[in-house]
Design goal:
Layout lengths: L4 H15 L69 E4 L5 E5 L3 E6 L9 E2 L5 E2 L3 E5 L2 E6 L26 E4 L2 E6 L3 E6 L2 E5 L4 E3 L1
Antiparallel strand pairs: 1-2, 2-3, 3-6, 4-5, 6-7, 8-9, 9-10, 10-11, 11-12
Length: 207
């Protein structure tokens, strides 16, 4: 049987087409899974609730700003331990000269270095004396005073007077609506109840 030229050409083309094909497995034709969008939003995170035992009423005072202004300390770490003082917060300055306390009704510091320019005041026996403390309250402006006992010094769990936790320079303690801080240049500053003081062994300001 004779094969015509057009038919032969068609057979050759079909052979070449088949020889150029390769086998592809069925799963190679499946679409690849979509990639996660680059700007996909992260899952929201939640914060653990604060322990209620560490919550205190923070200060609303406005103590003077200093060049060594820092952060705030944890108030519960300064809480009193003796009976009757659990609601009072005590601190001493890094120098150890000034010991202070913040209670619900008043704020004060006993000091072994009252500035020489501070006025003499009436003592517990009615005599005029050099003051050994500075204080203010919810109903009284800041003033110097004489305390017969160390009214603002920390007492341990056994009731004996001891050393309060140091409030570092530049740090702030807030409790009972009062803000106290210690500055290396200005000394102790406490403000709240609409009153306040700043004092060191050299100078003082009463509000």
């Amino acid at each position: 049987m004779k094969t015509t030229l057009p038919a032969a050409a068609a057979m050759i083309a079909g052979t070449l087409l088949l020889s150029g094909c390769q086998y592809l497995p069925w799963n190679a034709l499946r679409a690849a899974p979509d990639a996660a969008p680059a700007n996909a939003a992260a899952a929201p995170t939640t914060q653990a609730p604060q322990d209620a035992s560490d919550q205190v009423v923070e200060g609303q005072g406005s103590a003077p700003q200093d060049e060594d202004e820092g952060g705030s300390v944890s108030a519960p770490a300064y809480r009193g331990r003796a009976s009757g003082t659990r609601d009072t917060f005590y601190f001493q300055t890094p120098s150890g000269k000034h010991n202070c306390a913040i209670s619900a009704g008043d704020v004060g510091c006993n000091s072994t270095a009252i500035p020489a320019s501070a006025p003499d005041v009436e003592g517990v026996e009615g005599y005029v004396e050099r003051p050994n403390a500075i204080a203010f309250g919810a109903g009284s402006a800041a003033h110097f005073e004489v305390t017969g006992d160390p009214a603002y010094i920390y007492q341990g769990a056994d009731g004996n007077f001891g050393e309060a936790k140091v409030l570092p320079y530049g740090q702030t303690l807030r409790a009972h609506g009062v803000t106290c801080s210690v500055s290396e240049s200005r000394g102790v500053s406490c403000y709240g109840f609409g009153h306040g003081f700043t004092f060191s062994s050299q100078d003082y300001t009463l509000d």
